Amino acid sequence: MIASAWDSTGAASLRGASVLLFSLFSVVLSGCGEQRARPVNVELAKATLVDVLNHWKAGGTIEELRTSTPEIVVQELQWTNGRTLQDFSLVGDGRAEDANWFCEVELTLSSGASDPVKKKVTYVVGTDPVLTVFHAIL
Question: Which pLDDT value is given to residue 94?
Fold first, then answer.
């Protein structure tokens, strides 16, 4: 009898806690859903990507872009791993998708001892709330 009373009480309190957690989770999610990402500013995205690639080509660092005004957050493992950018060209006009602009770029990379290598990559560029340039992993 005691065990069955505990089971029903425990189940009731567990059910009540689940309802409370679900309610809190729903409130948090509904608050987050109201803030929609602004559509990407394609002209700014393209200019940012070209500026970042020119900075890399000139021998600059990713850290310098983080401390620039405006700040640009960049993720590019080729750059981080010490590859130098000899040249680049944007392939096509890219495509805007919600808060991001996707652009294919042909890079000419060098690691010092070896001959330069051409490589096509896609970058994802965001313009709000911060300028971002990421090497897309597709």
Answer: 97
